[in-house]
């Protein structure tokens, strides 16, 4: 019942989700929640349990004549189960935080006057007015891959088998079999999912592509 006597045995780190006895009531199997552990308990007889100390907690309404558990209950109540990772770090911190440290000035921010020894004349003449320029343009030379996991009939021959046309990502690729070079159609702004070639003899080598 609600006010019945009980003993609380400490083992799982969190709540217990399932409890089952074996067929002869000799062992008890408990399954923990967050600790995800399975524990097997032995059901000891009363005579054996009186001789052996147990790590347990009794209910407040349990009588004193049962005995043998008061010291265990006191010890368990004094244990602190605070997680170290969540406790406040009181260790003094030394040094300067990264965002407060003084950064070394870049090449552009440094003053023009330098205490370093002068460079040879040949190096001086080559480095005058020479600065790293940002990349202005990139040219695609080779596209690797082919989209075939979710597309069908998207590879075709052109020019009597001299060229192969297909696509990958958002690029349409025309691959020349003899030279191994590629030319590209890069007007799509998303992945190409379909590609077909016109079969009418009046409109040779006209290709249509569709994107997502």
Summarize the structure.
With 212 residues, this protein is α+β, with helices and mostly antiparallel strands.
Descriptors:
single chain; 212 residues; alpha+beta; four-stranded antiparallel beta sheet; three-stranded antiparallel beta sheet; 10% helix; 25% strand; flat
What does this structure look like?
InterPro entries: HELP (IPR005108), WD40/YVTN_repeat-like_dom_sf (IPR015943), WD40_repeat_dom_sf (IPR036322), WD40_rpt (IPR001680), WD_repeat_EMAP (IPR050630). Residues 56-69 have a biased composition (Acidic residues). Residues 51-72, 100-130 are annotated as: Disordered. Among the domains are: 7-78, no CATH class; 156-211, no CATH class. It is an alpha+beta fold and 212 residues long. It is flat, with a radius of gyration of 40 Å. A hairpin with a 2-residue loop joins β7 and β8 (171-176). The model has no long low-confidence stretch (mean pLDDT 77). It has helices at 46-51, 70-78, 121-127; strands at 7-9, 16-21, 27-32, 38-42, 56-58, 156-158, 163-168, 171-176, 182-185, 192-197, 207-211. Strands 6-7-8-9 form a four-stranded antiparallel β-sheet, with no helix packed on it. The chain has a three-stranded antiparallel β-sheet with strand order 2-3-4, with no helix packed on it. The chain has three helices and eleven strands.
